[in-house]
Design a protein that fits this description.
The structure holds two protein chains of two kinds. By secondary structure, chain A is mainly β. In chain A, 0% of the residues lie in helices and 56% in strands. Classes of the chains: A mainly beta, B mainly beta.
């Protein structure tokens, strides 16, 4: 059974710091992995998607890496800003054929202090 | 191109009533997913639908819950005889057809969610 774990559960940093959020999964047979952002009381925004054949994806100040064999992904946020404060969720897609459901971690709650 | 729309955003029901949650996918998307986020818990997959078909309902409770995605109109998640434990945020996501697969066809785009409170 696939399980997704995110460490740390919560993180508080001063503005400007570079930081790393970690995601691990127990079954390396994944199709892809997505990082999402969730703001309090709001929906989810997809940040980055990494296919199983890829090693990393970049979007602006965000960089996500994937090491499928070791069951790990990291989300790197450069030069953090107060607007980055949110919960960051990692989800893996186990796709085999039509199975496209996402299995989620519990998230890392990030607070960036001005 | 409007994003995924869900309504209502907030829904209050008394125990025993029915709850109907609606999801309109992004234009051109034919795949819909429903997820539930219980208080202090992570998101859990419920059901994956394509137009007029349920593809995977392995995350749906066996009783009281049903989902549909008709040929015309939004996808509906229906909860009959609600109980307090059904109080949660229900999120809908959509993605395009799998034909001509690219990065964008695999990304799931989420709606703002419906927050159900059962009194």
């Amino acid at each position: 059974k696939q399980e997704v774990t995110q460490i740390p559960a919560a993180l508080s940093v001063p503005e400007g710091e570079n930081l790393v959020l970690n995601c691990s999964f127990t079954d390396s047979a994944i199709y892809n992995l997505q990082w999402f952002r969730q703001d309090p009381g709001k929906g989810l925004t997809s940040l980055l998607l990494i296919q199983s054949s890829q090693r990393e994806q970049t979007s602006g100040r965000l960089n996500a890496s994937l090491d499928k064999s070791s069951g790990r992904s990291t989300l790197y946020i450069a030069a953090s800003q107060p607007g980055d404060s949110a919960t960051y969720l990692c989800a893996v897609n186990l796709n085999a054929g039509n199975n496209r459901k996402l299995i989620w971690g519990l998230g890392t709650s990030l607070a960036v202090n001005p | 191109n409007a994003g995924v729309m869900q309504n209502p955003r907030h829904l209050v029901r008394r125990r025993g009533q029915e709850a109907r949650l609606r999801c309109s996918p992004m234009k051109g998307h034919s795949h819909v997913y429903w997820y539930r986020q219980l208080p202090e818990e992570g998101l859990k997959f419920m059901v994956y639908l394509q137009k007029e078909n349920i593809i995977d309902e392995s995350g749906m409770p066996k009783e009281r819950f049903s989902a549909e995605f008709p040929k015309e109109g939004p996808s509906i998640l229906r909860i009959q005889q609600v109980v307090r434990g059904d109080s949660a945020a229900y999120f809908c996501a959509s993605s395009p057809s799998t034909s001509g697969r690219t990065f964008f066809t695999d990304t799931q785009y989420f709606g703002p969610g419906t927050r159900l409170t059962v009194l």
